[in-house]
Each structure stands twice: as C-alpha cells, then as structure tokens.
Amino acid sequence: MIHSLFIINSAGDVFLEKHWRSVIPRSVCDYYLEAQRASPNDVPPVLAAPHHYLISIQRGGVALVAVCKQEVAPLFVIEFLHRVVDTFQDYFSDCTETIIKENYVVVYELLDEMLDNGFPLATESNILKELIKPPNILRTIANTVTGKSNVSSTLPSGQLSNVPWRRSGVKYANNEAYFDVVEEVDAIIDKSGATVSAEIQGYIDCCIKLSGMPDLTLTFVNPRLFDDVSFHPCVRFKRWESERILSFIPPDGNFRLMSYHIGSASVVAIPLYVRHSLALRGAGEQARLDLTVGPKQTMGRTLENVSLEICMPKCVLNCSLTANQGKYSYDPVSKVLLWDIGKIELPKLPNIRGSVSVASGADTSGANPSVNVHFTIPQMAVSGLRVSRLDMYGAKYKPFKGVKYITKAGKFHVRM
Amino acid sequence: MSGVSSYNNDKVVTGEVEYPAGDPASGAFFQPDYKKNEDLKMMLDGSKDSLKLEAMKRIIGMIAKGRDASDLFPAVVKNVVSKNIEVKKLVYVYLVRYAEEQQDLALLSISTFQRALKDPNQLIRASALRVLSSIRVSMIVPIVMLAIRDSAADMSPYVRKTAAHAIPKLYSLDPEQKEELVSIIDRLLADKAPLVVGSAAMAFSEVCTERMTLIHKSFRCVSVVVRPLVSVVDRLLADKAPLVVGSAAMAFSEVCTERMTLIHKSFRKLCLLLADVDEWGQLALLNVLTVYAKTYFPDPNEAQSSSSESDKPFYDSDSDTPRDGAPRRRRKSSSDAPGLDADHRLLLRAAKPLLQSRNAGVVMAVAQLFYHCGPNAELPPVAKALIRLLRAPLEVQSVVLNTIASLTVNKRALFEPFLKSFFVRTSDPTHIKLLKLEILTNLATQASAPTVLRELQTYVTSNDKQFAAATIQAIGRLALSIGSETETCLNGLLQLLSSKDECIVCEAVVVVKRVVGGGAASARAAVARASKLLRSDRLAGNARAAAVWLVAEHGAKLPRAAAVLAHMAASFPEQDELVKLQLLTLAIKLSITQPDTLPLGQYIVQLARYDTSYDVRDRARMLGRFLTDEKMRARGATVFLEQKPAATTDSSFKDRQQYTVGTLSHYIGAAAGGYRPLPASPATAIGAELRAQPTPAVTSPQEDKKFYSRPNSSGSRSSSGSGSSSEESSSEESSDEEASDDEEEKKPEKKKETNNIKSTTTSSASDSESDSSDSEESYESSDNSDDPKSKGDKTDSKPTTTTTTTKKNEKSNLELLLELDSVASSLPTMTPTCGGLLSPSAGPAGDDTIKPVPAMYTSGEGVPLLSRVSCGGLSATVHWTRKPHLYGDNMLVVGLNFTNHNSAPLQHLRVGNRSLGASRMMHEFLPISTLEPGATIPVTIGLDFADSIQPIEFVIACSLGEFTASIKPPVGELMQAVTMTQERWDKEQKKLRGMNECEKKASKMDEEQAICQRVYETANVAPITATGELLRFAGRLMSSKELVLLSVKIEEDSTLVRANCSNMAIASLLANQIAQAFAR
C-alpha cells in the first residue's frame, strides 16, 4: 500500500511530501530524480530502490511519486495517483506546481481524506467536495469575514449511501444535460500516403446539472459500432449488455460517461492528407521542403484548428519557409517545426515550402522526419455514431438536453 | 501585528527572495528562517482563531516542504483544543507528523483526543481516533487500545469504520496487542453496518497476516476469528453499500493464501457482489479470488490440453495462423464446456463485465484472473480490453505493455489481431518504444513478418539511438525465429553494416554474428562484408571482436580471412582485449584450415604472449600448443572446427512468467518484498461442497440490488431470467447454479415475512434443485447445502450463548448493552431496517475463559461498624464474606453482626436512610424485629461499591434511635477471585501495560505459601501460579468486571508486587496494600 507521496516539479525539487505511515526521508526520491535526469521524458513508472518501490506519474509538469514498501499492483497505485491529480484539477481547475503551492493546505486536507493508512478512503469527488469545500474567491472572502472554514463539520451523505457518486438534495434552477461525443482518430500514415494503422478512440463527456435523483437512459442509433467500451461506474452494465442502452443515475457536474474504441478491424475514414517532399540528400547543404495539406473524406465538414508538428532530423539547422496560410515557427533546439494552419477552406490548399539548412558533413541518410497532425472537425463523429434519444425518469421537470459531436486528431502521425 | 511586521523585516535581512510576494503565507512556505518561528509561536499563543489558522497554514507549508517544524511542537499542541475545526484539523496533521519525535510533548495532547472521542459530532470523533491511532508513540498504546475498543462500539458506523482502520495502525505499532485487537475485530465483524464490516475485515487481514506463521500457537484465536469473518462476508453481501465490500476485499487480499478456506462459504456471493463493489475494492477482491481459484479449481487448460494449441511454441509450424484461429472460435461457442467447475465458471462470468471498468487496475486484475485461472478460449475479450488501455496515460501504457509483452511469449495468438496497435510512434518515450518492439517481435509470424519487417525498417532510421539499436536486435531475433525471413533479415542487417552511423554498425555486427552463428546460408556474404569492414578499421571494440569472430567461425576456409588476419596483426597491440582473444582464435583456425598461414599464426601468438593482459597471455599459452605441438595440431580440427548448435533467442520477458501477471514483481522482473506467488492448481476441484454450504442468511435489499446492476447476473443468472439460461446446456452446472441462486434469492424475501425461515428456504431450495437437476451429483450438493446449514445453525448458536454469558461477566455495563446485539444475533430473527443479517458472532472458545472461583480465604474477624459507646449499647461489626450476592453479581455480600449490649431488647432494627452515589446499590437486610439483650444476630447486606473505595453511608435505625454507619471497603474486597489459564493471564497482562500497571517494591518474603497467604488476606484473588519465580493472581472487579491481575516476583532482597488493572486507582491501591501486607 502507499506509504508516502512526494510531489516533484520539473526542476527536480520535492515541493510537497505527505506520509501516511511512518516518515520516509525524501532522499528516497533521488532514485526517481536520477532516472528523470537521465531522460526527462522517459522515466519508467516503476522504479525499484533497495528498500522501496517508487511508482510515479507525470502530469501537468509535476511528478507524483508514491513510495511503497511491499508488493502492490502497480496499476492500482498509478490509477490512484491519476485520481489524485483529477481531484486537484477538479478543485483548482488545473494541477501545476504554482497551483499546488498556492493551495497546499487544501491539498493536504484532500490527501488526508483520500488515503488512510495507505488504503483509499474517499475518492469520489462529490464526497470529497462535501468534506472539503473547493476554494473560490467568494468563499475565501466569506470565510475571512465570517471566520468559517472550508472544512465541513458533518459527514457527507454520499459516504453511506449506495449511490456514492451523487449527493442527495441537488437543486438547479435550470436543469440541463449536455453530452459531448468526442472521437479521436489515431493513425499512422506511411511515406507513400498509405494508412498503416487507424483507430478511433471515442468518449462521451457529460455536463449534467439536474435536480433530485434523475435516472437517465441514453440510446444510440447504431450501438453496434462499438468495438470495446468502458463505463463510469454509474452505468448499469446489465442493461447495456442486454439492450445496448446506457442507463444511469448521473453524478453531478462534469464527468466521463463512457469511452469506446473502434478498432483497426473496421475501416476508418482518414479526414486529411499530407503531401510532402523533403530532399535532404540532393542539394548538399541546402535542402528543400514542400508540404501540402488537404481534406479527404470529411463528409462535407471543414477541418479546423489544423496544425502540423514536424520533428526534423538532428542535422537540420534552420528553416526558411513561406506558407500560403497560417504561421510557422522552428525551434532549432528541439528541432521541431510547428505550422499552425487554422481552418482549411477549399479550394485553396495550405502549402508551405522553402529551404532547409543542414549541418555540413552531417549524415542525412538515416533521417526520417515525422509529422504529428492536429485538427478538429466540429459537428461530426467520424465513426458515424449518433445518439438517438435521452429519456429521464425519476424527476418531474423537463430538462434541456443537448448533444455535440466533435472529431479530433488523436495520435495522428505521418511518416516522411 | 508586530509579529507580522517583524517577520517582514527578517525577510529583508535574510534576503529570502524565492517568494517575495506580499502574501505572508506563501512567503513563509519557502522560508527556512528560524527566527520567524518566534512569531509563529506568538500567533499560535494568541487568542484569535484567524491568526492561529494562518500560523498553522504556514506550519503545514513547512511540513509539506519537508522543513523541520518540530521546534514549534509545544506551541502547536496547545491548539489541539481549538474550537475551530480547520485549526484543529491542521493541528492533527502536525501531530501525526511529529508526535513520534516529540513523544513526551505529544502526551499532552492525548487527553484532548480522549475528550474529542466523546464529541457529539461523529466526524470529530472519527478524526480524533484517526489521529490518535496515527500517532506512533508506543507509550500510548493502552490508550489507543481503549479508544479503539470504545469506538468499535460507537453509534456511528463511520466512527466504527475508522476504528477498524485504526486497528492495523496499532498493530504495526505494537504487535503484542494482537490478541486484544483480534477480539475487537471480531466484534466489528459482527457489526450491522456494512461500512464498518469492510474496514474491519481489512484490519483483520492486516493484523492477522503474519499470524499464519504463528498459526499453531494461536490456532484457537484464529478459529475464533474465522467464523465471524465469514459471517461478515455474508452480511456484506446483503449490504446496501457495496462501497464497504471494498475494504473487506482489501482485508482478504492481505490474509491471502493460507486463509483461502475462509472464502469457501462466501465464495459464490462474493462473485455475485463483484460488480457492485467500489473500484478499489474490486481490485483487491479480484486478487483474492484469483488466488482462491488457483488454489481450488483445476487448471481448465490442463483438461483440454489435447486440444490446446495456443500454447504452441512460437516458431515451428508454417500453417500456424489459420489453424490457430479456427478451433479457437469453435471452442468459444462451446465455452461452457463441462470441464469447468460451476463455481469456477461463476467467478469468470462475474469478473468479465469488469473488463469494462474505467479503472485500469481493475481491468488488469481481471486479466490476471483470466490468464491464470481461465480457459484459453476466454482470453480474447481480455486481450481486447488490454488493448483499450493502450490509450490510457503513459504510465498505464507502460505497465500494460509490459504485461502484454510477457503474455505474448506464449499466448501469441491472442494479440495477433491487434498487431497494428503496437506500431511505434515517434512521439512515444523510449521505454514504451522498446516494449512495443518486443511485442512486435513476439507477435511476428510467417504471415505477418513482412509487415513487421517493413515497420522495423522505418524504426532503424529513428533518431532515438537506443531504439534503433533495439530494432536491430529485433531484426536479428526475427531472422532466427522465422525461417523464411532469415535471408531478408540478414540482407537488411548486412546493409546496415555499411551505415555511416557507428552505433548502428556495431549493433548490426553483433546481431549478424548471432544470426550467422545460427547457421545461415549467407554466411559467406556476411563474412565478406565483415572482412571488408575490418580492413576499413571503422568498427568499435565490441563490433570488431564480433567481426573477427565471424570471419574465424565461417570464413576460416577463405583466403580473404588470412588477409584480414595479416591486416589486424599489424595493429595487434592497439586492439581491445576482446579483439585480441578473437584474433588468437582466428589465427589457430586459419593455421588448421590453411596451413600456409602458420607463420602468421605463430607471430600472433608471440605477440599475445607478451601482452599486458593476463587473459590474453593465458590464452596465447594455451592455444600456442596447437601451433607448435604436432600431436595437438592433429587434434586441432576436432577442437576448433566442430559444428555448433544453432543459437536461439528468447524474449527477455520469458523469465518473468514465474510472477503473477500485473503484479509489481512481474513488472520489475524480481520478487518484490511481500510477494506471494500463486499456488499451483490442484488436479481436481476442491471444496465444491464447502462452497455449496449456504451461509447463514442474508437479507438483501433486493430493490436496490436489482437497480444497481446486480452483478455479473446476466439474464441467465436469475431464476426468473429469460431463456438465456438454456445457454448452459450442460445440465450439471446449470442446475447447481440455479439452485443456489434460488436459495439466495428466495431466502431474503422469505426471511422478511417469517421467522420460521429455515424450513421454507431449504425446502424451496431443494425443490428447485430437484426440479432442474438430473444428475446424481447435484442432489448430493443440495443435500450438503441444507444439511450443514441446519447443523451450522445449531453449532453456531451454541457457542454464542455460552460465550455471551461468559462475556457478560467481563464486560462493562455499556458493553453489556451492546452485547445484546450478539445475543440477538443468535436468534434467527431479522430486523428489516438494518441492511445486514445478524449472524452469530463467536466468543472466545471453551477453556480459555475466565471463571469465578470461591474465595481462597475468608477472615472471620469483623471490623467494628458501630461502637456500643456511641450507639447506646448497640454494636455492630462488619466482615467480608467474599461471596457474590444473590441479587446481582455486582454486589458484595457483607456480613453484619449486631449485638445488643443493653439490658432491654432492641426493637425493629432496620436500615434507614442511605446516601448512595450514582451507580451504587445496596440490598438491605430484612428488619430484625427484636434483638434480645446480649444476643448477637448476623445479617448480610449486598453492597455495590461501583469499584470505588469511597465509603457507603447508611443509617441503622432501631428503637434506640438512628445511627450512622459507614462501610469503607478495603480495596482487596472490591474484587472477586477468578481463574484462567496461565497463557490467558499473560495475554491479559500484556494488554494492561503502561498506565494501567503499578509496581511496588515490598520487603523480602521467602516462602511462597506465606506470600500467598498474605495476598489472600489482603485481596480476594485466586492463584494462577502459586509457585515459582513469578506468582500470578487474578481477580476481577465486582461492578465493571475488569480484570485485576496481581503478580509477585521474588527478587534478591525484596519482592516486587505488580498490579494491572484498567482502573488505575485500583491497581495502585492494590499494589500498595499488598506491599503493606508484606511489610507486616
């Protein structure tokens, strides 16, 4: 079980520590720091120190390092650490070093509630929020004036109820339920433009503000599409299995209802192509780069927020390019060329071309740059998934309902 | 305010610039300045809550930052009494952190916690207990013990849960408290609130894990605990809050292997419950069930090993893929094969939906279960779920890929369809890339090899050198494993030899060496290329050695080799040691195959003989023989040119298979501390009849249950279910399962209606059983299922009643009230309001009880109560009979002798007014109508002193008037003699250490008998051991029934009297009295 937790910033300073059992000196973090120094972006999540095991995650520029002394499922610890960060994000809207430092008292109180003696105690955010009120300016002022604290003095009801993710007595003037169907396309496109692999990773995020204890059912037009799904614990799995209907009592506020996977077995539409030519070898120290991006299989929607991230080979010194749309920047240290295109409006195809200066005498043979593509397509789910209806039981009012579809690039990768 | 400003000044002086902003709190956060602590102290000493809060916040900041804030301890501890909850909480945090270092000062806070433990707010009580138990100071063990004991009987389930959580903490602090803790756990386990039980079970597992080593010693205790634990699980099953079962599961996971027998009874229900437990609980529960399944169910794949094909060795057959797919699908359709035990199937079916959990840990736990205990045919969905996790955060990916990498070593077919999911992206961190590469290599088959190779080709050119090198290794492995691709791979590798990148070339040479060593046909080409490289002097040490080896091994017959040797000989002294060794070998081989190179060889040997490295010199000396000695040369060919077996390359993940999939040990490839391997599966299923034994009873809030996805229960599970039950065509298991289902489902409903459930449920169960079953065995199991049940009820209820009576004698009034629970629990009645069923709780077993015995000694002489002088001729004496009173065993029987010294008879002698304290009682004697002159009449009264030596005063009225009498009991009379076993005595004494112990030195007494006599005279105790070094006596207080343990140790020149009693006053008084008695 988890003995201690250290939070470390990107510079390698331990800026917060919390011990649930006996105190473990922070020097134990040196094993982590060593690994981090060796390769900042490539720290193995589990490190074995002589007497301890360090299990760490990195998010938002900070690393959470949990120290365990005994055999424990690594995914249990990793999952828990992510839950901790999720909770911080929920409370402070972000999880960075400055924010944690600013709110260290609340952070400490939260950690105290979430884990007791190394065992998770309360991780549901609605229970936590009743125990410890999230800070906001209004409350801070009110607290200073009235002398109240943001620590609750009573036990939240959810703790003992059988719907631990929802507190009782929720009330809203406007009852609304919004669903965002977000699909991310993961693809690898090879040099010739052929698709090496393509998958769709989708999730349904909800923002539900409904009074009372509503019971919702969400029906899809084409539920057969789903290849593999995972649900928020509130979803009744049995009904899903028998009827392919999502039936659930929602938590209050924002949460991820389900995530699904549409595997490489089914055909995935690739909504964009990149035509590229990079000739490093031919022109000696001056090489030419020519890139064109164009839409493909977008079902009539426009591609928005398109941006290309090209990892240049090490031998590239600088680029001088001209783009007919958007802006570009080149970072000579990390060798990343960033081209921010924006919206693609036909018939004009965005193009960038120009010369690339290569270090003299460098070996250019093995270099193969790759392009990471980002884009969004609003109002479309690339898999063709559609929500057919949302029904509500258990409450008398009529809620506002809304569904939004978005397709995004996930790990969309073009090899050059 | 002055404090704040001085603080600011300090900051300027010390030049602290890290956080120069105006916010004092954040500034303090980073300030290592010690003077500043002064004003923190001032703030804490002040009366304003806001200042205190501010100070505490800063101090917490220091702690969080890892700064030493221990010098503030005295100032902080004072604030533990603060009314402000937030200040209080922060003080708690501080205390937990520093109490260990400042033990003496920490004791100051204890009384506050004790008070807080009685706070009306459950949250405060709970957090007080949480903190108190987290303070790792061994001195307070008895107090924590007491607090836990009290909190375990708290009204609020939340507090009781906290009490359960506190138990492992205390246990780790002082393992000697185990027995006492176990008894508390025992009580908690019998709790009605599900919330508590789970934690109790957790505590149990924590505390008792190590006990397995002591099992022989404390077997009785264990067995005491076992039963409640099982009943707890029952109750948990009926629980409204599945949240709770989580803690329970954690408990089990700690208990683990040796205790698996505990799960028998509750196994089926645990399976059913699985889906409703909270995610952390699911994780633990799955771990437990995996071990259980492994222990009691045979390996499903063993039975069908004849048809099992997916375990095939990796590389042998050509038609592997198509053959693999078809039977797999076929078997899946008939996956409910008769080979699988019904319970085993139940478990797998219950676990399967959890593959859809959002918690990666849970998914992995299910994968672990299926991999180790499931039939191969069930694995594809698992693989799918694992693939889904690849989209999770990096850390999760890493662990999952690790698992997959090890699974693919012998379950390749599983992940074959997902080959493309493992293609590497340049954005992946290196360790992920390496794992993916490993998997790709493991997955490659004849059919997929071209795809994989094409991928590998792009990887070779990666900027990431480590990854590129690993890719080359992977190509090498592919070349070896897939016969048809060897040529292609080798060609590719040879091309790499001419790469401009040195690392790649080096790696390639090493790999080529290995591949060619495997006896490839293109050895000649490889040798040609290698020799070319050697001549160009472009290879680094390792690679150069490999190239030389290559030439020596496969090119010894080629004239080119001699040229290479000649070239290298020129620079021999500058070569690396490894290269030199290889050159020596080459020289010898050449001299055998091409005798004309002999002089060259001799030259090399000469050079080597005077080398700086002794390894080289040794080798030269040894090999030189083959050049000089004719006889040896003749043998040379057999020594150096033998055919060698082909090299094989195994995945580096192969040796990880000894560890359970998904564990820490599996990830790091070494056994982590506390790792327990899964047991080997038995040949046949064990314990079916044990599982069939229905647990005492369950009330389940059916409505809730149904609502919240009554676990696993696909439609087929419920007896009311749809036609899908026909899916299980195999009659044996379906009938079995349905029967047990019926039982479970009908029971609760019936129970609510009537008390007379037993007959109805069992009959309904057996009815349904006989309806559906057509096999002999299920009849048997149905018999089993109701037979042990009635038996179990009998055996359960008996010990309970006896133990409750014995328990009653040792518990306080409050506890007695609470004991009502356990009395009630032995009755088969249900309280519909509570979620759980009252099932029997077990007390300590038979002969380990504390039995009252008659007093060892009673003094006949009386103590004057009323003197004839002051009472006009009436006198009375008191003597202590040391017998329990008829009217209540709290009362002492006190004998009174009234004597009339007057000449006239006394009339109407009786007890008049009495002034009794709270809880004190008196049972008066029957009024005496006449007391003749000179006569003496003995009477007895019953007095309950409530364990205090405060005198009881009452009025004795008679015809002469009223006289006030006051009886002050000697401390030794407040108790009743009891006996117990010596072990029990020792155990009890251990619990009463610390503040509950009082020691006195007394004058030297030699004879044991004399000592005993004195002791008996002074106190009503019974001997436990009346001879030897240490004399033990025991008694217990009349009212509270707390034990009084007395021991006398004979030392050199004195005797040591020690009294232990949770009532500290009694302990010290008693010790004093005994010491005085010895001094007489």
What does this structure look like?
The complex is a heterodimer of chains A (about 425) and B (about 1100). Chain A is α+β, with helices and mostly antiparallel strands and about 425 residues long. Chain A has 3 domains: about 1-125, Beta-Lactamase; about 175-270 and about 380-415, Immunoglobulin-like (Sandwich); about 270-380, Immunoglobulin-like. Chain A is about 15% helix and about 45% strand. In chain A, the strands form 5 sheets. A 9-stranded mixed sheet of chain A has the order 11-13-9-8-23-21-16-19-18, with no helix packed on it. A 5-stranded antiparallel sheet of chain A has the order 2-1-5-4-3, with helices on one face. A 4-stranded antiparallel sheet of chain A has the order 14-15-20-17, with no helix packed on it. The radius of gyration of chain A is 25 Å and the shape is globular. Chain A starts with a strand and ends with a strand. The relative contact order of chain A is 0.12. By secondary structure, chain B is an alpha+beta fold. The two termini of chain B are about 65 Å apart. Among the domains of chain B are: about 1-235 and about 240-245, Leucine-rich Repeat Variant; about 800-845, no CATH class; about 865-970, Immunoglobulin-like, CATH 2.60.40.1150; about 975-1080, TATA-Binding Protein (2-Layer Sandwich). The radius of gyration of chain B is 41 Å and the shape is elongated. Chain B contains 45 helices and 16 strands. In chain B, strands 1, 11, 12, 13, 14, 15 and 16 form a 7-stranded antiparallel sheet that branches. A 5-stranded antiparallel sheet of chain B has the order 2-3-4-8-6, with no helix packed on it. A 4-stranded antiparallel sheet of chain B has the order 7-5-9-10, with no helix packed on it. In chain B, a hairpin with a 5-residue loop joins strand 14 (about 1030-1035) and strand 15. Chains A and B meet through strand 2, strand 4, helix 2, helix 4 and strand 7 of A and helix 4, helix 6, helix 8, helix 10 and helix 14 of B. Chain B: This is AP-3 complex subunit beta. Chain B: It is a peripheral membrane protein. Chain B: Keywords: Cytoplasmic vesicle, Golgi apparatus, Membrane, Phosphoprotein, Protein transport, Transport.
